[in-house]
Amino acid sequence: MNGELTKRQKEILGFIEQSTTDCGYAPSYLDIQKKFSFKSPNASKDHILALERKGYIKRDPHKSRSLRLTNGKTNGNGNGVSAVNIPIVGRVAAGEPIFAVQNIEGSLAVDNSFVKNPQDVFALRVKGNSMIDAGIFNGDYVIVHKQEVPDYNGDTVVILIDGEATVKRLYKEKDGRLRLQPANESMQPIFVNPADKQVWVAGKIKLVIRKI
Fold first, then answer.
1. pLDDT at 146 over 80
2. Could you tell me the fold of the domain covering 7-80?
3. Which residues are catalytic?
4. How many other C-beta atoms can be found within 10 angstroms of the C-beta atom of residue 91?
5. Architecture of domain 84-209 in this structure
6. What is the rounded radius of gyration, in angstroms, for the C-alpha atoms of the chain?
7. Of residues 101 and 123, more confidently modeled
8. Which residues contact 16 (CB under 8 A, 6 or more apart)?
9. What's the pTM?
10. Are the CB atoms for 137 and 183 separated by under 8 Å?
Protein backbone atom coordinates (compact mmCIF):
# COMPACT_ATOMS: atom_id res chain seq x y z
CA MET A 1 0.00 0.00 0.00
CA ASN A 2 1.22 3.48 -0.85
CA GLY A 3 -0.34 5.63 1.83
CA GLU A 4 -2.42 5.87 4.97
CA LEU A 5 -6.15 6.23 4.58
CA THR A 6 -8.22 9.09 5.87
CA LYS A 7 -11.21 8.30 8.07
CA ARG A 8 -13.58 8.84 5.15
CA GLN A 9 -11.52 6.64 2.84
CA LYS A 10 -11.61 3.84 5.42
CA GLU A 11 -15.39 4.22 5.64
CA ILE A 12 -15.76 4.05 1.87
CA LEU A 13 -13.45 1.04 1.63
CA GLY A 14 -15.53 -0.71 4.28
CA PHE A 15 -18.72 0.18 2.41
CA ILE A 16 -17.32 -1.32 -0.80
CA GLU A 17 -16.50 -4.54 1.06
CA GLN A 18 -19.89 -4.74 2.75
CA SER A 19 -21.81 -4.03 -0.45
CA THR A 20 -19.82 -6.64 -2.34
CA THR A 21 -20.51 -9.23 0.36
CA ASP A 22 -24.22 -8.42 0.70
CA CYS A 23 -25.11 -7.79 -2.94
CA GLY A 24 -22.50 -9.73 -4.89
CA TYR A 25 -21.25 -6.61 -6.70
CA ALA A 26 -19.50 -3.36 -5.88
CA PRO A 27 -21.39 -0.10 -5.28
CA SER A 28 -21.62 2.58 -7.97
CA TYR A 29 -20.45 6.18 -7.56
CA LEU A 30 -24.11 7.10 -7.04
CA ASP A 31 -24.47 4.46 -4.31
CA ILE A 32 -21.44 5.90 -2.52
CA GLN A 33 -22.78 9.44 -2.94
CA LYS A 34 -26.09 8.48 -1.32
CA LYS A 35 -24.43 6.52 1.48
CA PHE A 36 -22.16 9.39 2.53
CA SER A 37 -24.43 12.31 1.52
CA PHE A 38 -21.99 13.75 -0.99
CA LYS A 39 -23.28 16.62 -3.14
CA SER A 40 -22.43 14.83 -6.38
CA PRO A 41 -21.07 11.51 -7.70
CA ASN A 42 -17.84 13.35 -8.54
CA ALA A 43 -16.98 13.42 -4.84
CA SER A 44 -17.35 9.63 -4.80
CA LYS A 45 -15.07 9.37 -7.82
CA ASP A 46 -12.40 11.51 -6.16
CA HIS A 47 -12.30 9.19 -3.15
CA ILE A 48 -12.21 6.11 -5.38
CA LEU A 49 -9.31 7.51 -7.38
CA ALA A 50 -7.47 8.22 -4.13
CA LEU A 51 -8.04 4.64 -2.95
CA GLU A 52 -6.82 3.38 -6.32
CA ARG A 53 -3.67 5.53 -6.18
CA LYS A 54 -2.91 4.22 -2.70
CA GLY A 55 -3.27 0.65 -3.92
CA TYR A 56 -6.35 -0.40 -1.95
CA ILE A 57 -8.66 -1.01 -4.90
CA LYS A 58 -8.57 -1.70 -8.61
CA ARG A 59 -11.21 -0.77 -11.16
CA ASP A 60 -11.97 -1.07 -14.84
CA PRO A 61 -12.80 2.44 -16.11
CA HIS A 62 -14.79 0.89 -18.97
CA LYS A 63 -17.10 -1.16 -16.77
CA SER A 64 -19.67 -0.19 -14.15
CA ARG A 65 -19.46 -1.59 -10.62
CA SER A 66 -15.96 -2.92 -11.29
CA LEU A 67 -14.35 -1.87 -7.99
CA ARG A 68 -12.27 -4.64 -6.46
CA LEU A 69 -10.30 -4.68 -3.22
CA THR A 70 -6.65 -5.52 -3.87
CA ASN A 71 -6.02 -6.81 -0.35
CA GLY A 72 -8.88 -9.28 -0.26
CA LYS A 73 -11.53 -8.05 2.16
CA THR A 74 -11.75 -5.57 4.98
CA ASN A 75 -13.35 -5.88 8.39
CA GLY A 76 -16.03 -3.37 7.44
CA ASN A 77 -14.01 -0.42 8.75
CA GLY A 78 -11.48 -0.26 5.94
CA ASN A 79 -8.84 -2.17 7.85
CA GLY A 80 -7.47 -4.84 5.54
CA VAL A 81 -7.80 -8.52 6.31
CA SER A 82 -7.56 -11.35 3.81
CA ALA A 83 -10.38 -13.27 2.22
CA VAL A 84 -10.69 -16.66 0.60
CA ASN A 85 -12.69 -17.54 -2.49
CA ILE A 86 -15.12 -20.36 -1.80
CA PRO A 87 -16.39 -22.38 -4.79
CA ILE A 88 -20.11 -22.09 -5.45
CA VAL A 89 -21.43 -25.57 -6.13
CA GLY A 90 -24.45 -25.63 -8.40
CA ARG A 91 -24.98 -29.36 -8.16
CA VAL A 92 -24.19 -31.84 -5.39
CA ALA A 93 -24.38 -35.52 -6.30
CA ALA A 94 -23.77 -38.56 -4.12
CA GLY A 95 -20.76 -40.58 -5.23
CA GLU A 96 -19.34 -37.67 -7.21
CA PRO A 97 -16.62 -35.28 -5.99
CA ILE A 98 -18.25 -32.07 -4.77
CA PHE A 99 -15.53 -29.98 -6.40
CA ALA A 100 -15.77 -31.65 -9.82
CA VAL A 101 -15.33 -28.97 -12.48
CA GLN A 102 -18.79 -29.53 -13.92
CA ASN A 103 -20.35 -28.75 -10.53
CA ILE A 104 -18.72 -25.35 -9.95
CA GLU A 105 -20.73 -22.25 -10.90
CA GLY A 106 -18.37 -19.57 -9.61
CA SER A 107 -16.85 -18.40 -6.35
CA LEU A 108 -17.78 -16.34 -3.32
CA ALA A 109 -15.31 -14.17 -1.35
CA VAL A 110 -15.54 -14.89 2.38
CA ASP A 111 -13.55 -13.35 5.23
CA ASN A 112 -11.02 -16.03 6.14
CA SER A 113 -11.71 -15.54 9.85
CA PHE A 114 -14.89 -17.58 9.18
CA VAL A 115 -13.11 -20.35 7.28
CA LYS A 116 -10.41 -22.47 8.92
CA ASN A 117 -9.91 -25.07 6.17
CA PRO A 118 -10.94 -23.58 2.80
CA GLN A 119 -10.21 -26.83 0.97
CA ASP A 120 -13.07 -28.47 2.87
CA VAL A 121 -15.63 -25.70 2.34
CA PHE A 122 -18.08 -24.91 -0.44
CA ALA A 123 -21.01 -22.55 -1.01
CA LEU A 124 -24.49 -23.58 -2.07
CA ARG A 125 -27.44 -21.39 -3.03
CA VAL A 126 -30.60 -22.11 -1.07
CA LYS A 127 -33.79 -22.92 -2.94
CA GLY A 128 -37.08 -22.88 -1.08
CA ASN A 129 -38.49 -21.65 2.22
CA SER A 130 -38.10 -24.63 4.54
CA MET A 131 -35.58 -22.86 6.83
CA ILE A 132 -37.01 -19.34 7.06
CA ASP A 133 -37.51 -19.50 10.84
CA ALA A 134 -33.77 -20.13 11.16
CA GLY A 135 -33.02 -17.01 9.11
CA ILE A 136 -32.14 -18.95 5.95
CA PHE A 137 -34.13 -17.68 2.98
CA ASN A 138 -34.61 -18.56 -0.67
CA GLY A 139 -31.63 -17.23 -2.64
CA ASP A 140 -29.23 -17.08 0.32
CA TYR A 141 -25.81 -18.70 0.07
CA VAL A 142 -24.84 -21.19 2.77
CA ILE A 143 -21.18 -21.90 3.49
CA VAL A 144 -20.87 -25.64 4.05
CA HIS A 145 -18.07 -27.62 5.71
CA LYS A 146 -17.73 -31.15 4.40
CA GLN A 147 -17.67 -33.86 7.03
CA GLU A 148 -17.32 -37.62 6.82
CA VAL A 149 -19.33 -38.37 9.97
CA PRO A 150 -22.33 -36.09 10.57
CA ASP A 151 -23.54 -34.89 13.94
CA TYR A 152 -27.10 -35.69 14.96
CA ASN A 153 -27.77 -33.03 17.58
CA GLY A 154 -29.80 -30.59 15.53
CA ASP A 155 -27.00 -29.15 13.43
CA THR A 156 -28.10 -27.54 10.18
CA VAL A 157 -26.77 -29.56 7.27
CA VAL A 158 -26.95 -30.04 3.53
CA ILE A 159 -28.26 -33.54 2.88
CA LEU A 160 -28.96 -35.35 -0.38
CA ILE A 161 -32.09 -37.45 -0.80
CA ASP A 162 -32.47 -39.26 -4.12
CA GLY A 163 -30.01 -36.84 -5.68
CA GLU A 164 -31.72 -33.66 -4.47
CA ALA A 165 -29.88 -31.41 -2.00
CA THR A 166 -31.87 -29.92 0.87
CA VAL A 167 -31.04 -27.84 3.94
CA LYS A 168 -32.48 -29.13 7.20
CA ARG A 169 -31.72 -29.62 10.90
CA LEU A 170 -30.50 -33.17 11.46
CA TYR A 171 -31.58 -35.45 14.32
CA LYS A 172 -31.28 -39.18 14.94
CA GLU A 173 -34.39 -40.97 16.21
CA LYS A 174 -34.38 -43.86 18.70
CA ASP A 175 -35.30 -46.30 15.92
CA GLY A 176 -32.20 -45.29 13.95
CA ARG A 177 -33.95 -43.16 11.36
CA LEU A 178 -32.79 -39.64 10.60
CA ARG A 179 -35.22 -36.79 11.11
CA LEU A 180 -34.73 -33.83 8.81
CA GLN A 181 -36.46 -30.99 10.57
CA PRO A 182 -37.46 -27.86 8.63
CA ALA A 183 -37.44 -24.48 10.34
CA ASN A 184 -40.85 -23.58 9.01
CA GLU A 185 -43.92 -24.35 11.11
CA SER A 186 -46.01 -24.94 7.99
CA MET A 187 -43.81 -27.87 6.90
CA GLN A 188 -43.49 -31.41 8.24
CA PRO A 189 -40.22 -33.22 9.05
CA ILE A 190 -38.79 -35.82 6.70
CA PHE A 191 -37.73 -39.24 8.04
CA VAL A 192 -35.08 -41.25 6.18
CA ASN A 193 -33.05 -44.41 6.69
CA PRO A 194 -29.31 -43.60 6.99
CA ALA A 195 -28.47 -47.02 5.49
CA ASP A 196 -30.15 -46.01 2.25
CA LYS A 197 -27.54 -45.33 -0.43
CA GLN A 198 -29.73 -42.50 -1.70
CA VAL A 199 -29.21 -40.55 1.54
CA TRP A 200 -25.94 -38.67 2.02
CA VAL A 201 -24.97 -35.82 4.35
CA ALA A 202 -22.81 -33.44 2.31
CA GLY A 203 -21.78 -31.17 5.18
CA LYS A 204 -22.60 -28.83 8.03
CA ILE A 205 -23.60 -25.22 7.47
CA LYS A 206 -21.17 -22.74 9.02
CA LEU A 207 -22.34 -19.40 7.64
CA VAL A 208 -25.25 -17.82 5.78
CA ILE A 209 -24.66 -14.99 3.31
CA ARG A 210 -27.65 -13.00 2.14
CA LYS A 211 -27.86 -11.62 -1.37
CA ILE A 212 -30.04 -8.53 -1.76
1. yes
2. Arc Repressor Mutant, subunit A (1.10.10)
3. 130, 168
4. 14
5. Ribbon (2.10)
6. 21
7. 123
8. 26, 27, 57, 67, 69
9. 0.58
10. no
